[in-house]
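So, who can interpret the following?
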Amino acid sequence: MTGYGRVLKIGAAALLAGCTLAAGTAQAQETYTLRFNHVLGPNEPFHKGFTDWSERVEERTGGGLKMDVFHSSQLGVEEDIIEQIRQGANIGQNTDAARLGNYVPGIAVVNGPYFVSTIEEAYALADLPTMKKWQQELADEHGLKVVCFDWVQGFRNFYTNKEIREPADLEGLRIRTPPAPIWQESIRALGAEPTAMNFGDVYPGLQQRAIDGAELVYPNITAANLNEVLKIANETKHILLVNFQVVSSKWFNSLPVEYQTALVEECRTAGQETSEVIRQATEAARQKLIEAGMTIVEDVDMEAFRQAGEAAYEALGIVEAKKQLQSEMQQ
């Protein structure tokens, strides 16, 4: 081979190596972004929990997967966001079993009256065969990937301007609930008239007397200053609210496997930590409301409310789904 030929060969090899290195660098620098939406305000414990989750995912993936967290429905109304997720958008949403029940009816039982009574029971749901089957159905048939549901927001109570001790006391009261069947039927079964309304509209809705009360958790009341328009907390504890974090299954499947693992594992870690923060924050919020003059009704006829709540499962035809999960929980 002539000297000229050797130069050409070396030059071609160098060019090929350079192209390979450039391609490898481009691949290594590929990043993914998740825009994560929730309806709560920036002062809610969940918001800090979501930002913690975001920071851990970004650190664990070396910046390869970034999460931008948007509070107060900045990206849009929850139901609209879920539809965008189903179409494959790189958006996440904090939601609940009630809304997911619009796609897989059985899963709505998790949001039903008096379904689980402790945080530990809520965590244990993740290992149940039926819950795994429902999540697979959500992903395969409806485009909704449940990242995790270890985010327990606490017990929901009725907040009104009238003392409530038994279901009959709720008769005629318009109580704000999210717009999903299990929410509506639960509140109707417990004795009130359910009124669908977005969380951000609750304060003005109470001011304008479009509603007579709301069913929420204690930290919601303090964070949104709802005690300015609601004077009585009735401790019915009718739902232990379990939150689900969902993303597009199409988008999730496009991630490198290690990014998928990071997103799921850090979701569970941040969720359980935040649930404990909320457990403590609930008592602090309760005490703050007492000091602000809110009346706390503790002597509630819990058995009467439990019995009344069964009608919600019957109305939606998910009694058997409830029994199936409860059976698996006892095994």
